[in-house]
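Follow-up to my earlier ticket, as requested here are the two runs.
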Amino acid sequence: MGVRGWWRVSRLVLSLLVADREALFTFRTLLDRFVCSTTTPSPTMLAATLPRRAAGLARLATATGGARAYKTSVANEQPAPKMAFGKVDLGPTGALAKSLEACPTRLHAHAKHNESRKSMSKPSEVDLGPRNLRKPGLGARSNLTLVDFRSDTVTRPSGEMFAAMMDAQLGDDVFEEDPTVKELEERVAQLCGHEDALFCASGTMANQLAMRVHVDAMTSVLCDAESHIYNYECGGVGYHTQGQLIPVTRSEHRRHLTVEDVEPEIRLPDAGHPETRALSLENTMNGGVHPIESIRELRQMCDRYGLVMHCDGARMWNAACATGLSLSDYGEQFDSMCLSISKGLGAPIGSVLVGSTAFIRLARQFRKLFGGGWRQAGMLAACGLFAIEHNWPLMGRDHG
């Protein structure tokens, strides 16, 4: 029987097997292999791949009248005529065996899939990552592990970090009585060479608190035009301070701001412009480390104009690791810095804002005003302490 005859048979079989999806898939795979190849499957292969339907398919594949007789018997609700496998002419098998050995087909892949299903782990034991990253066809039966590279913010605590959370000593941080929070704040302040620190819920909150302390109405802050504080914090500087955030465009082919970029944008006190009060830098910026030499030059410029310098150091841990400099080498250049513990360090939540004692006292009051005062936050602070102790020394592996 030719290809056209096989397609006629397939239409009938597909209608009969629509309720049995597994048999339907197997038959369609077999049919696709037969039509696209110059060889035909043997009765043995049919029996192996379609154990429950082999006899019926063989009867349908017979020559004259086979399909018609089967269709008539179904219409009359009578059993189909019995026909032996020996009467089925399915062509030579030698070439097929050779082609299957040389080129595995979807038929073999399906058979292998069926075998693997018997020993497949339960769906709950398969780590597929976030649900919205599952690709069609993988499903709960897949044993693939998806790795999420959207951001370093999607990290999850390890078992050891969870254990540190459980062992944390707790208190009320609004009353400044949580010992674990105080330990984290003291540790980060010491690392950065600053007097005090404040544990905040996010980097955005830490940045906005810094701006609220540094800036007020009719003043302005200069920042990189691609910075987080300008593009991804909902215009918070203008909302919270009534001041203005002025973006500065970097010189061509540069990955960081320089004195040449910033100095022309400084607004001196006059009747028509918002006086420049602060400069906000970001390190790292889009994966690039701001060179310490450039930061020092900008510090000298700010000193000449009486400006304060803030650093959005969400990934300052990465910058210090990549350059070999200490956090205090960077910290001594800034009046305030915020450092995230929920990105490269792998803790679930939080950023730490560092600065002088007077600066942190005001920032703590504004944090309460923003609704950011939290109570027993020591469990989250314990994650930060664990990450600094155990994860930060391994950060070089991420950069490799």
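Run two:
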Amino acid sequence: MSLSKSTVAILKACHPLLKENREKIGKTFYTSLFRDHPQLKNVFNMSHQRQGKDGTPGPQMMALANSLVDYTAHCDELSQLGPLVERVSNKHVSLGVQPEHYPVVGVTLLGALEDVLGKEVFNEEVKTAVAEGYFFLADIFIDKEENMKREKENAVGGWRGWRKLKLVDKVEETPIHTSFYFAPEDGGQMMKYQPGQYLSLRLPNIPGVEYTQVRNYSLSDEPNENQYRITVKKEIEGVASTYLHDKVAVGDVLEVGVPCGDFVLDNDNQSLVYLGAGVGITPLLSMMKVSAKQENKNTLIYRATDVSNHPFKKEIEDLLKIGTNCNVNWLYSDEETHVKSSQFTVENLRNLIPDQGSKIYICGPATFITDSVKYLKQLNFKDENIIYEYFGPPASD
């Protein structure tokens, strides 16, 4: 089954107009969605809706708008949308998005487009085509997400939806990073996740907060079936992270989503590079611990403000002591002005990554990822060997 030729033609004709108005579309859509359906604030990570002080759209607003723009560009070659469908489906499964949410989103999207573009442009013919295109794609997501849920539910130690896990340990890694160790409340087995994946926490009873808070956190240790470890940075004005750091205690039981995510280790390459900054070290450490045992050549390049804000430093140095084929480079931004080797530059990356055939995994703040990809392309690394994940929705173009 595919879209009709007339619908494809209309969607493609809409592409430049949607691209031009994407900021307004993203803001209008989410403003309308949460005004008319406030219960959905219990599903979405509302921190990603937060607009900038200058009124710029929040990251999730732009992610929605950019996905719409991409879809209208590639509606006749859906294979180009494969990575988008994979990433979004994983996120939806982790957050508990249900099939009945799709019609709500569709109706709201049509209304937002009419508000932004006007009824003369977004006339009945255009609206009908966009509706066909949206619900066609929605069916693809619904089918894929159901298959993912079923597969995870049927895996050894797997589950569907939310499972109660007990916090069995809580370890301060730095003054702003804390690790949380979870095990099943029922004593059962847990699904063995892939290194690089994340889980979700659902926090329904934070004092003074009206809606349930749902957050994704990367699993920060090598996979095992007995306990999961996440490591959380305490964010300024971070509702969920502050609650976890200050209020959640060993013995508490939390609702946890099944591990998800498509940013995972692929061991088809003997030379692996992990390029991380800040709390972006978490999925990379999980990957590195696994690949270090498989005789791959591993290089970690990690950027932090200083030693005091550097999680897992000792844990990584201990990994080096056991004779694994690993190399580590620390880059501290507070040393940049007087230590040239601490600078995050294309020249330093050239020296630190001598193997042009390396596969490179990148995780960290949006600006760090943007700079990293730019530098690596300047060094002629192939696109297929540059793999990255944003914490939160992808940055806008």
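The only thing I checked on run two: Residues 124-154 form the longest helix (31 residues). Let me know what else you need.
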